[in-house]
Amino acid sequence: MSRSRCVALTLVLALLPMSACTVKVGSGNSSTTRKHTGTKKTSGNSKPLDFQGMTLRIPYTWSGFADDSVGDRVHVTTGGHCDKKGYPEADTCRGFWLFSAEDIALGNEGRPFTPDRPFYPRTDSVPCPNRPSAFTTTNGAPTVQKLLQVGLGHRADYREWNLTCVSPAGGGDEGGFTQKTVYLPESKILVVDNWNTFGLTTRLEQATWH
What we know:
Blueprint: H1 3-14, E1 22-25, E2 32-36, E3 46-51, E4 54-59, E5 63-66, E6 73-77, E7 95-99, H2 101-104, E8 127-128, E9 131-137, E10 144-149, E11 155-166, E12 173-184, E13 189-193, H3 200-205, E14 208-209
Antiparallel strand pairs: 1-2, 2-5, 3-4, 4-14, 5-6, 6-7, 7-13, 8-9, 9-11, 10-11, 11-12, 12-13
């Protein structure tokens, strides 16, 4: 190939939008494809992430993947690419989740989610995100409960839960984690953060709507 044609091809590839890209992860026949959500590159150190009419500004180092295993959901990873898909399987990757009506309808052990309980969408055991060999328990009351302003004209129910991880053999305590839930019932959006994502609350407060 001539030098001029190589240069032209490079320029065309560089101009492709992020929304046209997919990321393939894994190896061999077990590889999966996770689609980038549509984000537009702008000046500064952040980019917009759109979900159900809400726009968040997130750092360029974070990645939003459309996880269509159930309804309309986005997994935002904050520590690099994730080679898993679905909740809670992919929750071992640092980040948080944006859930819509389908997940909300199953968020309380297969029944509709209520902010009075942690997000726990299964009727059987759910692995802990930071210790997948242990199981999550959901006993106790929230340690934080308040209303959170999410952009102009939208307020959410915000709660924090200290959840315990127990051993499948004997039920011994193996640590735990904090789950943060941000629920906007009218917009049918539920944000679930099991990794204490730095600055997420501020980014939600600065959200815009369209």
